[in-house]
Queue: 3 jobs
Job 1
Amino acid sequence: MRLDDVIFLLKALPLFRQVESEALRLLAFSASRRSLRAGDILFRKGELSDGGFLVLEGEIILDASDSGAPSPHIFRAGALIGQAALFAPIERPATALARERTQLLVLTRDLIERVLDAYPRSAIALRDAVAEEVRQFSNALSKLSI
């Protein structure tokens, strides 16, 4: 996949929508890529994260159960896996498995920090995007009858 195509996929994500084009270009250029075959495991439930993944092509399925039963969580091209892991080390809540030949962009926390250090306006845009997601989540929770 061409660099401009990767930048397009990043820009389509709400998290990166307001990030400067130069920052996205640096992120897309500097990130490594990972190829998986059908059945390969991307990560296992319980592992400590060091970042997230952008699906460039193919499909990843998440299995949060310990039984190996199919999960409805399927990530296809353009999906971001592990958004919270971009900013903090978290325990993976599920095992991620390639359903078919899959290409991923590996977005480590270290890389995100370096890019945001170089582009402070993009860091602010990212902070604002995360804050908006938290506000929306909080509003949705407040509407639930518990």
Job 2
Amino acid sequence: MTATAIPSGQLALKGPAEKLDAAHWPVRGDLAHIRLAGRCFVPHYAVPMERRVAAGGADLLADGKEGADVREVLGGGTLFNVLDITGGWAWGQVGEDGFVGYLPVALLEERRG
């Protein structure tokens, strides 16, 4: 399990916002990975929940709906860091620095241990 460091001290945004690549940065208009606190201004930050893709694998989608563009085909056992679950879809990031996208929650295994 990887430890997620929660930033300490006072957080402040300084200067213009960075232009982030949505396919690789875990940030949306309402939520971002906790490691982006101080770099991105959103209403909420989340500590990821580590999950693994089920044995059959899964398509990582650009949007949480059937028929959305596929960003990457993930093999069974791939680490997926879940940041949000809504309507049967999990939004998060592959590993620590992979693609960001959506998977059906049913295709993720519960964390063991």
Job 3
Amino acid sequence: MYKQSLIEKIVHHLQTELENAVRAAEKAHLAATDDQSVAETQYDTLAIEAGYLAEGQSRRIVEFQNALAAYQQLELTPYSEKTGIALGHLIQLDGDTKREHWFFLGPAAAGYRTQIEGQSITVITPHSPMGQALSGKFIDDDICVVLGKGELKDFIAAVD
């Protein structure tokens, strides 16, 4: 289908998010070390808060770098009736066929949504409830996924 285009879009999205995280981390680091952030009283916590923010942004940077590396190493293999759904496959549930919606089982970037040639695609990971329900399954298999307080019951209509 459109897997290579999809991977390129995901990588571009992750690179943009990485750049944003780097800028945010730089700003937070500057705020934490700025002369204006020096505590004037024991209750002044601006520098401490900025330090925590910088640390959190640094963690996000590592997560985006790991996600980019995972997509660069991802081998797109065709669906096999012997092994079932695996990383790199596009999956469509029966209830989504009219809406032309697909799920992409990727190594990272869960929740990322895009459109390619009129097809809506949502990235899920193997660790998500939907990813766990789909991994190793085959076309026409039933799935049942608990989503919040609800439950999704459907069957796999197509895999690419």
